[in-house]
Structure formats: C-alpha cells, structure tokens
Amino acid sequence: MTQPILHIDQLGKRFGGFVALDGVELSVPQGQRLGLIGPNGSGKSTLVNCICGTLQNESGSVTFDGKKVDGMPAHKRTRLGLARSFQLPRPFRSMTVAENIRVPLLYTVNARPGSHLAHAELDDRCMELLGLVTLQDKASKYTTDLTQVEMRKLELARAMAAEPKLLIADESMAGLSHSEVEDIVALLIRMNARGITIIMIEHIMSAVMTFSQRLVVLVNGKKIADGNPQDVIQDKDVVGAYLGT
Amino acid sequence: MRTPAFILTLSLVGAVLYFAFRHVGNDYLFFAGYTVLQYIVMATAWNILGGYCGYVNFGSAAFFAIGVYSSVCLHTIGERVDDLFPDFLLAPMHLIFPLPLPVLVVVAGAVAGLVGLGMGYLTLRLRGIFFAIATLALAVVLETFVANWSFVGGSRGAYVAPPTEVPFFGPYIQFLFVLMLVLVVAALTTARLIERSRLGVGFATIRDDELSAEASGVPTLRLKLIATVVSGALFGMAGAPFPYYIGYVEPSSAFNLSYSVNAIAMSMIGGTTTWAGPMIGALLLSTLQQVFTVTISSAVNLLITGLLLIAFVILAPKGIVGLWQSWTSKAKGPNS
Q1: What DSSP line would sit under B83-94, residue for residue?
Q2: Adjacent-strand bridge partners of B136
Q3: Which position has the higher pLDDT, B95 or B255?
Q4: Which residues pair with A197 in a beta bridge?
Q5: Mean pLDDT over residues B285-303, rounded?
Q6: Which residues are paired to A67 by β-bridges?
Q7: Is the pLDDT confidence value at B95 over 90?
C-alpha cells in the first residue's frame, strides 16, 4: 500500500486551559474524499489550522506527503501541495477575481523548482481555473461585487490554483441555498476526480453524505468515530454528541 | 512605460527644474525645493510599508534620524581623525576621510536598512494600531540613545559646517538639491518597480489578508521584512544630507514626530496604492507648507497637514489618485 498523503499522530493543541485538540489520530490515503463533522467548538477548524500551519500544534505531529511539517510556516506547506479554503471567504479585496487567482500561481506554482509560468500562460491558467468554478465571466470584477456562492467558488479556485495534492474545504457551503450546495459538492467531486485528495468540513449532512467516502467525527477535540459514512451516523456516540444522551 | 524610459523622463524633469531654478537665480528656491524633494522621498519610503503592505509606521522619523546621525557620526570621525586613530592608521584614514556626501548617503541607507530589519523582526508580529505604537516606542528609544551619545553631540546637538562652494554647482545648496533629485528618482523608480513586480502583488496580499496570503504561498514575514528594509533605507538616505542642509542638528529636531506625521499625511492625501500618490501628496502639501512658512508662519505647517488630512480622510479616502481613478473610470462608462 502506498503511504498516506496525510498522517496525523497524537495531535494536541490547547488555548490556555482549554484543550482544543486532544490526541487526534488520522491517516488519509491518496485520492480519498473525507468528510469531517462535529458540533460547533469541537475543534474542526483548529485541526484544519494545525494541518495547514495557520496554527502550530503543541504535541504530536503532522506528516504530509512523507514529510514532517511541524513548525513549518503555512506558505511552505501550501507550496508542498497542501491547500485550503477558509470558513469565511477571505478574498484579496483590492484585486479583481483573476488577480486573486494569480497570487497562488505566482507564489506557489512559480516558486516550485523547475516550473515557471510566463505571462500568457498565467492568464490562460487563470481563465482555466475560473472556468472550473464557472466564474470566467467575472474575471475582471472586484471581489466586492461577488455573491456569497461566487465568493466560495473563488475561494476554492484560489486553493486549486496552488496545484494541491490535498485540499481542505472548511465549511465552504455554510449559508448557501440547496441548489448552490449541490453545485459546490459537484465541484468538489470534479476536483477529486482530477486526483486531488479532499477533506471536507461541513454541517450540511446531505452534502456530507453525498460527498464522503469516509466520515470522521470530532467531539471536544477527540475523534469519536471514523469509517463508512452510513455506519458512522448511526454510531451511538455520534448520535449522542449531536442530540445529547 | 519601461523602467529606463521612466528613469530618463524623471531625470529630464529634474534637470529642467534645476536649470529653471538656476535661471531664476534665487538660492531660496533651492532651499525650499530641497525640503519638498526630501518629503517626496520620505512619503514614498513610508508608502512602501504603509501603503503597499498596510503597516502604519509611526516611527518613521527615527529612520530619517538614523540617516541624519550616521552622517553626523562619520562627519565627526572625519574631523577628529588625529584623535581617534593610532599613528600607523593616520595616513590611510586621512585619505578616506572626509567621506564625500554620496558615500554618506549610501552608508546611511545601509544603516537605516539594517535597523529596519531589526525593527521588523521585533514588531512585525503586531498589526494595526499595535504596530504603530511599537514603532513609535522604538523611535523614542533611539532618540534617548542618541541624546546620551556625546560623540554625536548628545542633547546639545552637533554643528556640521558644509563647504560653501562646490565645483560646477556653485553654492552648496545647489549640490544638495541635485543630490536630493537623484534620491527622488531612485525612490520613485524603486516604488514603481515594486508595484509592478511579483513583490508588489505579494505586498498587496499582505495588506488585504495575511492569512489568505500565507495560504496562497506568500512568505509574508520575509516580504514584510523586505518592505521595512527598503522603506527604512530610503528614509535613512533622505536624512543623510540633512545635517549639511541645516548646519546644526539635535535629537529632538531630527526625531521630530512631524516627519512621521507628514510622511503619513502626504501618502494618504496623494493616495497609497500607486507610486504617484505619495509624490503628488508631498508636492502639494510640502509646497503649501513652504508657501505658508514664508507668508504666514512656520507654526501653521502642522495645522495645514492636519486639516488637509481630515478633509481627505472624510471626502476622498483613496487620496488624489483615487479621485482621479474614479473620475476616469466614470468617464469611460459604467461597464469598464
């Protein structure tokens, strides 16, 4: 068996006296679509932040693509192929949609040894990525003119621009309508078909169930369930965590 | 316009200005012009960190003062070579000192750039108002240090007597004016190069959203350090000729908060997103200040700065360049 793309070993993080993550173990094989759920405050976003380097874990370790990345700043992890979208879209507001996409192209793709995109190639790549999320008509618009769903798509396209091996989509559907959710799920599945491993964090269960090949549940900073989605949602502990026992 | 053409155009404008002033034949024009040019360099320098990256440096006067005092220090060494060096070093030292002013400018730039690097490491974790306070505090620390350093005059201040005449230029002030013109060209070219490069894109991402920038592969800390170094170096270079211009410097004038405030106000009034903004702001505000100094009083200077700053923050937060851009885009039609 090939080595997992992401391996998390006994990951721990606390904020003062509050234990946000407590010995989380997770191994994600290449190409998997993993759903990560958990009640509010269960540590999902902290886990994402520790994987991506926005926060640094205090104990345990994160191994990405065979490399230990503990202590590595976020931008280096992105360059290794670990991309993320943010829970609340965080576009570069002084730039147009196309310019937003150019940033990871310039700083991630062009920063890798042996790859250099010339001007024309950059523009082509921008349009290709925007085409992927059907935003090509908005390329020269400023991000303030975008709707919520377009903003989420931009967020995903920008993450994709970094040519990731693993994409973490942190609640990229919160606040969207039913059809928009389906739109984004289809988009994520398309991305996965291109060979990208995807971890999706989500509250919308229909989306999670359509998307996930495997489901992990986090409660109070601990992993309480991991496995086939159908089995996991019937798990006694999981039902207890959501509904109270 | 390509960079060489840009440099050539600026140099031509500078040359025209110089010969026009010379033609008028009043040295006061050079004195006033020097100050305006100095503020163009300072506003441009401030904008590289403050405008492009969004980090408001309130202690920028300290970098100016570092330039001033590195010149004072080297000038003093030049005057006291016989006391300071052992006998066997006297002959070579007499060859080296006194250092020509352009060399002092380069040294001042290097020293201020290094201090910028140090300051960056210490303060760049902070954002917004906290960063501004930290830089202000750093300025106070440096001022106290200089005020207690008797070699450069301490709080008594230091006299620097410039030569009265220089070859070709005639009066020394004309030489200083041309030197400052060169610095203006250098500063504007640097700012414009940054703006159009990958570095400029990176700076803009830092200003917009640092977390997103990191997630997009932008090495934010390194870029911010580059910005503080370049900004600090330009401030230092603007300060280096100052003792020769003014003749006497003391800490409270070299570290004067009004330098920081003016540099900020000029960038804001002109517009912080392009190289032209600080230049326009400095030209406008500094020229006004010079006019009011002569016609009313020098005390009215900061009042002008304050009033204009308030007016612009309320009426045109993107500065003159922003106003211009919104006018031209309206003229082109709503779809563009």
Answers
A1: HHS-HHHHHHHH
A2: none
A3: B255
A4: A166
A5: 87
A6: A64
A7: no
- Pair type for strands B248-249 and B158-159: antiparallel
Q: Is A115 on the interface with B (CB under 8 A)?
A: no
Domains, chain A, ordered by start: 6-243 (3.40.50.300)
Buried b (16+ CB within 10 A) or exposed e, A141-152: ebbeebeebbbb
Q: How far apart are CA B9 and CA B283, in angstroms?
A: 17
Q: Determine contact: A43 vs chain B, CB below 8 A.
A: no
pLDDT tens, position by position, A125-143: 999 999 988 899 999 999 9
Q: Which of B201, B211, B219 lies closest to A103 in CB terms? A: B201
Q: How confident is the model at residue B229 (pLDDT cuts 50, 70, 90)?
A: very high
Stated pTM of the model: 0.91
Residues of chain A falling short of pLDDT 50: none
Closest residue to B220, CB basis, from A75, A110, A111: A75
Distinct helix (H) and strand (E) counts, chain A: 9, 10
The DSSP bridge partners found for residue A26 are A8
Q: Which secondary structure element, helix H or strand E, spans residue A216, and what is its range?
A: strand A214-219
Query: What 3-state DSSP class applies to A85?
Result: strand
Residue B223: CA count within 13 A, CB half-sphere: 26
For B266-301, give one letter per residue: b (16+ CB within 10 A) or e: bbbbbbbbbbbbbbbbbbbbbebbbebbeeeeeeeb
CA B175/CA B169 separation, integer angstroms = 6
Beta-carbon neighbour count of residue B258 at 10 Å? 14
CB-based contact (8 Å) between B220 and chain A?
A: yes
Q: Name the nearest CA neighbour of B207 among B49, B60, B38.
A: B49
Q: How far apart are CA A80 and CA A63, in angstroms?
A: 11
What's the number of CA atoms in the CB half-sphere (13 Å) around residue B159? 2
Residue A132: its H or E element = helix A119-132
- Amino acid (1-letter code) at residue B207: R
Helix count and strand count (H, E) for chain B: 17, 4
For residue B201, the chain A residue with the least C-alpha distance is A103
Residue whose token pair is 């190069």: B193
**Alpha helices, DSSP H, located in B167-318:** 172-196, 198-208, 210-215, 220-239, 242-246, 251-254, 257-270, 276-295, 301-315
Cβ distance of A92 and B220 shorter than 8 Å: no
State ipTM.
0.89
Residue B333 has pLDDT above 70, yes or no: no
Say if CB A130 and CB A98 are below 8 A apart. yes
Kindly state the percentage of chain B with pLDDT values over 90: 69
